[in-house]
Amino acid sequence: MDKKTLIKQLISDFHVAQIRPLVARDIVLPLDIEKIVVVTGMRRAGKTSLLLNAIQTLRQSLTVEKLVYLSFEDERLSLQAEDLDLILQAYRELYPELDLSQCYFFFDEIQEVQGWEKFIRRLDDSVSRRIYLTGSNSKLLSSEIATSLRGRCLSFEMFPLSFREFLRFKNIEPDIVSSKGRALLNTTLSAFY
């Protein structure tokens, strides 16, 4: 399968996929800002879940066709920087009646594509001002982002779950008044560490 056909398939598959319910984190991405939003953090900290939470929120007010999500960790993609325009071409072929300027772009683990920065700058300049990126700290440092995106972005650093978020994830209400509640918190605290 050629790269553009694969990208079309991935975009279409995402549009029909059900996003499983996710536990909300304390950090919330702004959805009404015209800056590139970048989320960095260590692996498995919840960056993808944060993007999916934002997408779930947007799905309540937008048609799914206006949401473009790609994970560059998908081994089938293996794109080079010069291939990134295929994303726009594939989208235009899938939805010729829609204007790309109305779309939200979510690119997960963008650092997997060497030289991605020029494409993102062009996308921001001439296509859409609604761009969300994630990347692991080891490959996408916030200092590199500031340099490569020249003040166009709003950066967030994602950390693993806080204890309060962990309690929410386990569906435990933090009750420190009752002895039963304190015991449950102590047991949960042990599991947290």
What does this entry look like structurally?
The chain is of the alpha/beta class and 193 residues long. It folds into two domains: 3-160, P-loop containing nucleotide triphosphate hydrolases (Rossmann fold), CATH 3.40.50; 161-193, no CATH class. Helix content is 39%, strand content 15%. It contains seven helices and five strands. The chain has helices at residues 3-16, 47-59, 85-94, 116-126, 142-148, 163-169, 179-192; strands spanning 36-41, 67-71, 104-108, 131-136, 153-158. The protein has a five-stranded parallel sheet, with helices on both faces. Helix 3 (85-94) links the parallel strand 2 and strand 3 (104-108). The longest helix has 14 residues, at 3-16. It is elongated. The termini are far apart.
Rg, alpha carbons: 19 Å
Main beta-sheet annotation: 5 strands, parallel
Order of helices and strands: HEHEHEHEHEHH
Please give the order of strands in the largest beta sheet: 2-3-4-1-5
CATH topological fold name of the largest domain: Rossmann fold
Query: In DSSP terms, counting alpha (H) and pi (I) runs of 4 or more, how many helices?
Result: 7
Strand content: 5-15%
Uncertain parts: none
Give the % helix: 25-40%
CATH architecture designation of the largest domain: 3-Layer(aba) Sandwich
**CATH-defined superfamily of the largest domain:** P-loop containing nucleotide triphosphate hydrolases
By helix and strand content, what is the structural category? alpha/beta
Question: How many independent structural domains?
Answer: 2
